[in-house]
Amino acid sequence: MSGNHVLRLFSAALANFRSQFSHEFVPRSQARYLKHRALRLEACEDRNVLAATAVISGVVFGDDNNDGAEQLTETGIAGVTLTLSGTNDLGPITPATAVTASDGSYSFANLRPGSYTVTETQPAGYFDGLDAKNNVVIPLSDTTDAINGITLVDGQVASGNTFGEIPAVTISGTVFADANNDGIQQGTELGIANVDLSAMNGGLFGDVVATTATLSDGSYSFDHLRPGTYSILVNSVDGFVNGQSALN
Questions:
Q1: Which stretches does DSSP call E strand in the chain?
Q2: Please, are residues 220 and 212 in contact by the beta-carbon 8 Å criterion?
Q3: Do 89 and 114 touch, CB atoms closer than 8 A?
């Protein structure tokens, strides 16, 4: 066998060996990089999967006595929108929203460690009441509609983040021609339309908080008032003198 032929056979065998085992021969610097990258990917995977386990929850309720704590006789408010914002261990979060269930409860799940704020959209028919963080009433929180600084660690369930709302009240009645002056509207006594009335906070010398006028049947209504004590002032009516009034 000639020398050239032997050399060609050796070169072919070497090329075949390299093709089969070249993946095992990695430069040392590249091997260190690949190992470091694998460890980083594993760490990132652990952070992204294992850390998003915390929860923030609470309730929005009608706080009849405005003390910031839900009593057994006070009910939750459904359909209220809440917005979650803040910063977790990866940076600022994209705001998320939740809507209260039929019992007024809400929750934000799968949260990472961080500091969060829950902001309430004020529900119609209510005035802002006191809020509580982790079941502790926040002083002077009846003008904010937000619970700030809810701090979470991995796996924590932060409950008791509540929003108390004061139910609005209505005062209604009728101005009528009281033929027998007994203060009670009989079937034959008709209401008086277009009479101006004022609702005043407290006594007759209190501040005017709302005004209205009677309808064609003499009825009137002051809606969306804060709970409290009011006086109703009826302006004079042409052709009539003051008669008796009735309360409730």
A1: 54-62, 81-88, 91-92, 96-99, 105-111, 114-120, 126-133, 136-137, 146-152, 157-158, 162-167, 169-174, 196-201, 207-213, 219-225, 230-234
A2: yes
A3: yes
DSSP, collapsed to helix, strand or coil, labels residue 17 as helix
* Residues 126/167, Cβ–Cβ less than 8 Å: yes
Question: Strand 162-167 and strand 54-62: pairing?
Answer: parallel
Q: Which neighbouring-strand residues pair with 116?
A: 86, 150
The 10s digit of each residue's pLDDT in 162-211 is 999 999 999 999 999 999 999 999 999 999 999 999 999 987 788 999 99
pTM: 0.72
Q: Which two tokens stand for residue 47?
A: 């952070």
